[in-house]
């Protein structure tokens, strides 16, 4: 009997709360008002990396590929020779055009001589005027024939130069799509693809609310702002180490997603930013006053993020908040919190919404750790 009583007392002691053990006193927590300071406002997005130019290399003349002059995936400068198409048929066409030009020049010389010869005869009424008209017409035909022959020669020479397929700009080529010996068709056969990689584009989608905020802050329109600042980091990077500027905003919102597409230009001197990859992009939204709290003071539930505040009577009240980026170890609170609110920054595990606590004054400093004083 006595043993059972002892066990019951031990169980009652184990189930007694800390507040009851202290005579019903509320638990103690540390609370402080959020730190208010001017910070750079950034909005983060997921960006897709795209080349600043994409060129499909196709032949401008038909023929047999004679040689390939690049290594698959190589970096090539503008004007680099990529493919050579058999030049012999085009050299023959050039020689034929030159011969036709010489023939046209000879016809023109003969027509000029005949006009000069028949001019005095017509003036002396020895030859009829109609004969002179025929000679003048023949001269004009010879002149036109000469122009046509010269144009045909230029076209033949141009086709000959097209047998050397060169890079229209610098960049990285893909793999070859044809090898030497294959026949290719002008304007149809794809030889390879060239991508310009410095700079690159970073495309992202912004919500309507974000777009309106950017546009109003830009004064005169987002597109005329001269390029808002952007920063980029890859998935394995901790810092936003790549700098760029906004250079394009689409003309309309997407009807399905309600977002608008933006594009930034980012320098890529080391060619680390690879088209097709993803990165985190943050867009500069201006300087402004912001409230900051430690990350440790933020709690999460099914509805989102919140902080716990202490009222004047010591009651714990949750405040749903919208969060921003980290600034010097503190989290920016975009909305949901007032400067005079007392946020619980210590003893958070002892605070429950709707209960009373005893709040000790603390301080939020420019570091991840909030110290009590």
TrEMBL record:
SUPFAM superfamilies: HlyD-like secretion proteins (SSF111369). One of its GO terms (biological process) is response to antibiotic. Residues 354-373 are annotated as: Disordered. Residues 1-21 form the signal peptide. GO terms for cellular component: cell envelope; plasma membrane. It is found in: Cell envelope. Belongs to the membrane fusion protein (MFP) (TC 8.A.1) family. PANTHER family: ACRA/E-RELATED COMPONENT OF DRUG EFFLUX TRANSPORTER (PTHR30158), HLYD FAMILY SECRETION PROTEIN (PTHR30158:SF24). This is Efflux RND transporter periplasmic adaptor subunit.
């Amino acid at each position: 009997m006595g043993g059972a009583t002892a066990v019951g007392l031990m169980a009652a002691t184990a189930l007694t709360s800390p507040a009851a053990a202290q005579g019903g006193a509320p638990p103690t927590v540390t609370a402080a008002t959020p730190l208010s300071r001017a910070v750079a406002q950034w909005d983060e997005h997921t960006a897709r990396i795209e080349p600043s130019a994409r060129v499909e290399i196709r032949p401008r003349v038909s023929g047999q590929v004679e040689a390939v002059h690049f290594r698959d995936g190589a970096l090539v400068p503008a004007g680099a020779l990529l493919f050579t198409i058999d030049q012999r048929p085009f050299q023959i066409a050039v020689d034929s055009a030159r011969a036709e030009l010489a023939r046209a020049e000879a016809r023109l010389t003969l027509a000029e001589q005949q006009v000069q010869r028949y001019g005095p005869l017509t003036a002396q009424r020895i030859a009829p005027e109609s004969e002179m008209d025929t000679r003048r017409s023949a001269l004009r035909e010879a002149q036109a024939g000469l122009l046509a022959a010269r144009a045909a020669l230029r076209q033949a020479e141009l086709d000959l130069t097209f047998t050397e397929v060169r890079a229209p700009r610098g960049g990285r080529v893909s793999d070859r799509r044809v090898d030497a010996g294959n026949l290719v068709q002008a304007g149809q056969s794809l030889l390879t693809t060239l991508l310009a990689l410095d700079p690159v584009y970073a495309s992202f989608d912004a919500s309507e609310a974000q777009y309106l905020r950017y546009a109003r802050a830009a004064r005169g329109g987002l597109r005329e702002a001269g390029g808002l600042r952007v920063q980029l980091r890859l998935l394995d990077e901790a810092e936003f180490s790549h700098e760029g500027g906004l250079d394009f905003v689409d003309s309309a919102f997407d009807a399905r997603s309600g977002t608008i597409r933006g594009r930034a230009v980012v320098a890529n001197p080391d060619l680390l930013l690879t088209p097709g990859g993803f990165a985190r992009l943050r867009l500069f939204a201006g300087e402004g006053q912001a409230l900051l709290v430690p990350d440790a003071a933020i709690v999460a539930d099914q509805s989102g993020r919140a902080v716990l505040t202490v009222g004047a009577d010591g009651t714990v009240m949750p405040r749903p908040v919208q969060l921003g980026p980290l600034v010097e170890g503190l989290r920016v609170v975009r909305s949901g919190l007032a400067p005079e609110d007392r946020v619980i920054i210590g003893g958070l595990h002892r605070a429950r919404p709707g209960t009373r606590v005893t709040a000790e004054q603390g301080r939020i400093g420019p570091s991840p750790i909030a110290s009590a004083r």
